[in-house]
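Run: sequence + adenosine monophosphate -> complex structure.
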Amino acid sequence: MIPVEQAQKQICAAFRPLPAEQVGLAEALGRVLAEEVTARVSHPPFAVSAMDGYAVRAADVATVPVRLKLVGTAPAGGHYEGRVGPGEAVRILTGGPLPEGADSIVIQENARRDGDSVELTAAAEPGRHIRPQGQDFEAGKPIFRAGTRMTVRDIGLAAAANRPWLKVRRRPRVAILSTGDELSMPGEPLGPAGIVGSNGLALSAFVRACGGEPVDLGIARDDSGVLAEMLAGAAGADLLLTTGGASVGDHDLVQEALQAQGMKLAFWKIAMRPGKPVMFGQLGSTPVLGLPGNPVSALVCSLLFVKPAFAVMEGRAPGGETETAILGSDLKANDQRQDYLRARLGRDAEGKLVAHPMARQDSAMMAFLAQADGLVIRPPHAPAAEAGEIVPVIRFPSDLLGI
Ligand code: AMP
Ligand code: MG
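>> structure
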């Protein structure tokens, strides 16, 4: 058994950043930038008015009321060609370019228009209600770092910066093979000793939520020939995930079948719970992660090992998900395996994170996992802990990933 951190390091070391591809901005949501992105325009591109009102020379409106001559209009998308001279004002609308000579805006609520002139009733200060050129962002300056995952807000910023396409990392392609004689696809009639195979769909969803492209290879029976045939579907994938058949039972043939195909085994068994019988190796150019069959183990191990691998493939730094919380109930001393306890997370009266480990920690119990908000980490040989102690936790992201 190797420690979790060593397994994570070894797994991450087997991946490289994926090549870049260009996508239209409409396709860029959730994609990861392969390079730094600079703005192609400044925003605003020129000084504009933030309000509907009158563009004036502040010096002319130091004492009020004062009457100025109206010499033109500057609507958004329009432009007053002349220069605002002493005693003059230009009608200006929100987004209208500030005319030359003017240095302040008097809002229309403080003005009374009367034919060719306007009476202003509030004093003007230089710069008031003006958005200077480049106040938001400047042409040529960076707006995103390489490795940024594009959010809805980022799409808006990229569009405003006149970037209709972006260079992003190719999505990681992940082949997923479920194994087990007892399994049938959700919706299929169940055999007399059958169970529904949930890992294929859960792992596909996980891969998709991480920004990858799942290729579900289906369910292989516990038979070396069948396994060999179905493993062929993993050719060209950036990662192969298998579930089940990972222990040492007569029917646990996955490792053997993979080695018969030429897989080089890197390690087998991690000192953790759930998920001890995890296997990692390399089949040709494809790293292979053999996950346990128990659904909770499969998903927790995906969070701990697949997500960091994705970070490497996306050119981002893996890790950084661990934080601390106040333990909500007592815990027994731990054994030699690092525990990841499913837990409800909440806030105390001061707003501090509190973790309540769930009463049952069976790695076959999907309902508890679905109700959990995160995992409490119990290092190997951790002594008994009392409610109120500070413990490390991983919070499930609140987005789609949910684990
Ligand atoms: P195994 O590693 O094949 O011994 O599987 C461990 C446990 O996980 C067994 O109880 C299996 O029935 C169960 N299991 C294996 N694969 C799946 C799957 N795809 N979906 C749900 N349960 C599974
Ligand atoms: Mg099995």
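>> summary
The two ends are 25 Å apart (CA to CA). The chain has seven helices and 26 strands.
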